[in-house]
Amino acid sequence: xxxxxxxxxxxxxxxxxxxxxxxxxxxxxxxxxxxxxxxxxxxxxxxxxxxxxxxxxxxxxxxxxxxxxxxxxxxxxxxxxxxxxxxxxxxxxxxxxxxxxxxxxxxxxxxxxxxxxxxxxxxxxxxxxxxxxxxxxxxxxxxxxxxxxxxxxxxxxxxxxxxxxxxxxxxxxxxxxxxxxxxxxxxxxxxxxxxxxxxxxxxxxxxxxxxx
Length: 212
Hints:
9 strands, globular
C-alpha cells in the first residue's frame, strides 16, 4: 500500500472511529481518496438512501459514516457474487452495522436497455428503491461484459432523488470514460465533475428540484 493511502486510511479511521477495525480490502476495493470523498458527501448532503453497485469495504465505510454523522439513512449494496456477498454481510455484522447496511445478493441477469441486451444485477434486488441521494457505481467487474457499468444509470435513474449525486470509480479507464459519455448524452442536464483521484473518479450532479 502506498504511504499516501496509509495516511488517508488513518484519516478515515480518525474521522469515523469505526466500532472495530475495517480491513483495507483487496486490489479491487475503492481507494482511500475516493472513500474520503464519499464520506464527505454523506456528511454534507446527508442522503436518506445510499445505493452502492458492487459491495466491499466501501459498504462498511459508507454505513459507518451514516452512523458517525447521525444521518438517518441506510446503505443498500448490490452484489452478484455469492461468496463475496457472504463475506461483506459477515463484516457488516461484525461492525454492528446491520441496522444501516443491507447487502443484497443480485445475480447478473439480462436486461434490455435502449434496445440492447446487457448483463446486470437482478431487478428483484433494486426495483423497490427510491429517493436515492448518493449512487456509487463500482460494479459489475469489467470482465463480465464490455461497458459493464453502463446500465446503472438507465436502470436506476428513476430511483434517484432530485439533487442526487452519482459517483463512478475507475474513471481513468477507457471503458468508464465511454460509460460516462453515454450517461451525459442521455442526461444533458447533469453536471460532470472529474476528480483527480489515484484511479480517477467521475461525479455527476443531478439538478435540484424546482421550488414550487
